[in-house]
Amino acid sequence: MRLVGKNVVIYGAGASGLSAYQLVRDKGAKAIIYDDKPDTPHATNSKGILYSADVIVLSPGVNGFKEVLLDAKLENKLIISELELASEFCAAEQIAITGTNGKTTTTMLIDHILRRAGKSSYAVGNIGTPFSSIADRLDATETAVIEVSSFQLESSIKFSPDTAVLLNIKPDHLERHGSMNKYVAAKANIFAHQSTQDIAIYNDDDEIIRGLVPNIVAKKVPFSTTHPIKGGAYISSGFVCFDGSPVLELEEVDMRGAEIENLLATVAVCMTHGVSAYNVAAGAIEFERPHFRREKVANLDGVTIYNDSKATNVSACVCACESMPGDTVLILGGAKREENFDDLFAELPASIKAITVSGDNAVSIMQSARAAGFENIAVYDDVKSALFSAFEIARAKDYENILFSPSSKSFDKFESYEMRGKHFNACVKELRARL
């Protein structure tokens, strides 16, 4: 892609937008940042500049189907994502990971194992470090491990990672994409432009993903938690295996339930990239879980408290619940979205003995609980009250765990799941001080 002398508008003034702005300037473009919000630092909110652009680069949070962008497309403006811009200028090998749940953990685990094996690897993308901030500084001996969201993929024109990983597809972000079919199509874009020289790693247990497989032209490497699979990763007799050979014992790794998908995808990536079974096993065993992803934060009076603020949808919450080692009080609730909590209560494991709820969607959660016949549930004004009550229940009933796994977006009271997670940890600290 040649940008010299072209007018490029970066849509969105967040971290990704600012990084994209610097990248296109470095490539000789005339660049300006546009943002919908007035008085945004470093940006204009005059829509006229969008029509004067040769290229419009979308930050991850920008909906590519905004009316102004559809109008720009009619005028033959090139509209690409920040992801695709970075990819165009990156000489490194690109491993891209997407899926409804598990993207961050899988990205971090792959990066960790590659580094342990002596490879020059960088975890970028939706994980926090914008891909465009380092893309053109990487050379062909290095690897970019990229966490990719459906928002980034929906506006992809020809993004073609050397290795693409699709972990799972569950209902999520439907208020943004408009329908489940459009959400699936966005996720499928990770494979759409690969060649026969590339690698496609996918979850063979996921019915939706299996429906996409016939359209994949890259080398197919499946993984499964339920059955042995030729040429892929799977579980057999308590071992994680790849293409017929054991790699590590499952019990040695802190991953349970649907989290095992993350491990299998990682094994498939690393083994296909020449990492030894020893380094894969050692790296997986020593890996530290990311913040706010079933993170153990305290043990108070015999009750272990886990912070899973990253669980922003039903399937992520169910995954965390299935991984709990013993009887558990679950804390739910957050922003009102299109989550179907009937699905949550249909899939809750028997280890969930009680539930406390706070948040704007408390009424929806309670309605689903009553419909499912789940009676040991109560609503509280805020996260702190829900935690304190959960602790009293757990201590009175000798339940082993408290799991904060909201199954909801955070935007009712917090800007992000990270802020919500930090608030929960502060509440745990206050609870400890009161004992």
Task: Describe the model.
There is one protein chain. Helix 5 (103-116) crosses helix 11, helix 12 (314-322) runs parallel beside helix 13 (341-347) and helix 15 packs across helix 16. This protein has a nine-stranded mixed sheet with strand order 6-7-5-8-9-10-11-12-13, with helices on both faces. It contains 16 helices and 19 strands. The protein is globular, with a radius of gyration of 22 Å. The protein is α/β, with parallel strands linked by helices and 435 residues long. The longest helix is centred in the C-terminal third of the chain and has 18 residues, at 417-434.
Q: Which descriptors apply to this entry?
A:
435 residues, alpha/beta, nine-stranded mixed β-sheet, six-stranded mixed β-sheet
Low-confidence stretches: none
The largest pleated sheet is described as: 9 strands, mixed
Give the tally of β-strands: 19
Q: Please give the count of helices.
A: 16
Mean pLDDT: 93
- Termini separation comes to 61 Å
Strand order of the largest sheet: 6-7-5-8-9-10-11-12-13
Rg calc? 22 Å
- Percent of residues in helices comes to 25-40%
Helix-strand category: alpha/beta
Strand fraction: 15-25%
Shape: globular
